[in-house]
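Structure first, sequence second, as always.
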């Protein structure tokens, strides 16, 4: 059972991102604020859930959260500022959009760039420990997957409907065969030797 909050005194938002390791498409992030006594036994790290379960949980999260927001940073922006900074920026943009402002932030992972002097704590594997981070991981993942499904129609050669932009062998081979497109991150290297690592 995941924990509701890291601390009880301040309004707490959980943040997570999706798409950091992809070759194509934006990086997405979400921020979620739940009531401090919130519980939901079905919520878990998005990577532990099937696509069907993630999509079923999304409207529940959006209905039961005190506030939530989803934001993205484009492939072009990622190329300009690098993927780590883009992940922070996506989370900051999501926090900007919250209808209720967070007084405390918990973030999945081990690094975060301070947001507007709001105190934060980084939690490794936090999406498997705290409900708000798990919910943020589900929102970020489902919104990003939908975006990738939308642009996949125009670029069928890259098989984004199944790989969502992640560096599968088929995706890498397609980039080597057809070149990259406007949605690819140009600073991410796609070379022959790397194929053997996956």
């Amino acid at each position: 059972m995941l924990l509701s909050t890291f601390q009880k005194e301040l309004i707490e938002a959980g943040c997570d991102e999706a798409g950091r390791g992809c070759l194509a498409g934006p990086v997405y992030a979400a921020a979620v604020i739940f009531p401090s006594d919130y519980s939901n036994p079905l919520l878990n790290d998005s990577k532990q859930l099937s696509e069907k379960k993630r999509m079923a949980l999304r409207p529940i999260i959006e209905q039961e959260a005190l506030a939530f927001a989803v934001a993205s940073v484009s492939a072009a922006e990622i190329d300009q500022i690098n993927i780590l900074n883009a992940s922070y920026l996506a989370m900051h943009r999501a926090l900007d959009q919250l209808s209720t402002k967070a007084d405390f932030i918990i973030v999945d992972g081990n690094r975060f760039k301070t947001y507007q002097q709001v105190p934060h704590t980084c939690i490794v594997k936090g999406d498997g420990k705290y409900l708000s981070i798990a919910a943020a991981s589900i929102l970020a993942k489902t919104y990003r997957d939908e975006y990738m499904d939308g642009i996949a129609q125009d670029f069928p050669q890259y098989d984004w409907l199944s790989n969502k932009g992640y560096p599968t062998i088929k995706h890498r081979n397609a980039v080597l065969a057809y070149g990259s497109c406007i949605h690819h991150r140009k600073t991410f290297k796609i070379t022959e030797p790397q194929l053997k690592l996956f």
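Margin note: The chain is about 40% helix and 15% strand.
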